[in-house]
Design brief:
With 307 residues, the chain is of the alpha/beta class. It has eleven helices and eleven strands. The radius of gyration is 19 Å and the shape is globular.
């Protein structure tokens, strides 16, 4: 069985959210034509997507053609909507999660779901996590690399980590909301440089921030091979050792010693980087990923390296 962890999907349609909530900033899907559709934000084009991003039968044909048995489905990160009013993000999360559940129920041998949560309101996030875990059977949730002004070590998020630990729910951390102005506005730098940095920041927050120490049974997977964290782990640990006054304030355990329940996906776009990632994390800590419908590493590259 070949399982692909990192695959984004959307409903084919959802309500007009500006009308539903009374303000803009939401993503909508338009112009389904010739196997394409346009994701728009306040009428401006955000991204053109292919039919396999909203149509499960097309997705399954692609899976068959690439030898994938099961995909873990998660929403496109721009849909997190942590910026919005918490009750509206909760409502939209339920729309997305219920749609994921419908797809999994219809094709239970091909898909599992990673839900989304209104993380800016931890009490609502906990409620939705428990609903999806208990009522819908979700085994994990995708979250952003930060929640507005909170890094993932924010004490406000402890109830979410506790609930995930108690429910046995895995957490998949995906970078999002990168700086896009100033020096970062050219050359697609938010995606090429900002995303790896975002993931590394989340990785540091959960290790040096003591989250993985405080919640030792929490299972966490970081997208895109853990971003730049595995490749700068030596520098990070050096800083932890020589500047404990700055880096060891929340835990005395080295970042490397807190990786027992930490995983990364394999989506690093380069076989040499993947070989190094295997050396750092261990072969049993990598999960195959192809970011279906977006930029992915050829599965054969992963299989040749990771076995």
């Amino acid at each position: 069985m070949k399982i692909d962890l990192h695959t984004h999907i959307l409903p084919e349609k959802w309500p007009n959210l500006k009308e539903r909530y009374g303000y803009g900033g939401w993503i909508s899907l338009h112009d389904h034509c010739n196997g394409k559709a346009n994701m728009k934000k306040d009428g401006q084009l955000f991204r053109v997507i292919d039919q396999n991003c909203w149509h499960p039968p097309t997705r399954m044909t692609d899976m068959d053609n690439t030898g994938v048995t099961v995909q873990a489905l998660s929403t496109v990160p721009v849909m997190f909507s942590y910026w919005a009013k918490p009750e509206d993000t909760l409502d939209f999360s339920r729309i997305l999660n219920d749609n994921l559940n419908e797809t999994v129920k219809k094709y239970p041998r091909r898909f599992v779901a990673l839900g989304t949560l209104p993380m800016q309101a931890p009490e609502l996030a906990v409620a939705e996590l428990k609903r999806c875990s208990s009522n819908l059977g979700f085994k994990g949730f995708q979250i952003g690399s930060h929640i507005n002004d909170w890094n993932l070590d924010a004490p406000e998020l402890y109830p979410v980590w506790q609930a995930a630990e108690e429910e046995g729910s895995a957490i998949f951390v995906h970078p999002w909301d990168m700086q896009q102005d100033g020096r970062m506005k050219k050359y697609w730098l938010p995606w090429l440089v900002g995303m790896p940095a975002e993931t590394a920041t989340a990785f540091c927050a959960m290790t040096m921030g003591g989250v993985l120490d405080r919640f030792p049974n929490l299972k966490v997977c970081f997208a895109h091979g853990g971003g730049s964290f595995p490749y700068t782990l030596g520098r990070i640990e050096h800083g932890f050792n020589v500047r404990p006054d700055l880096c060891a304030t929340e835990t005395k355990r080295r970042p490397r010693d807190l990786l027992k329940n930490v995983y990364t996906d394999s989506l690093v776009h380069d076989p040499a980087a993947l070989k190094f990632l295997v050396d750092v994390m261990g072969e049993d800590k990598l999960l195959a990923a192809n970011a279906c419908t977006f930029l992915g590493l050829n599965r054969s590259d992963f299989e040749d390296i990771a076995g």
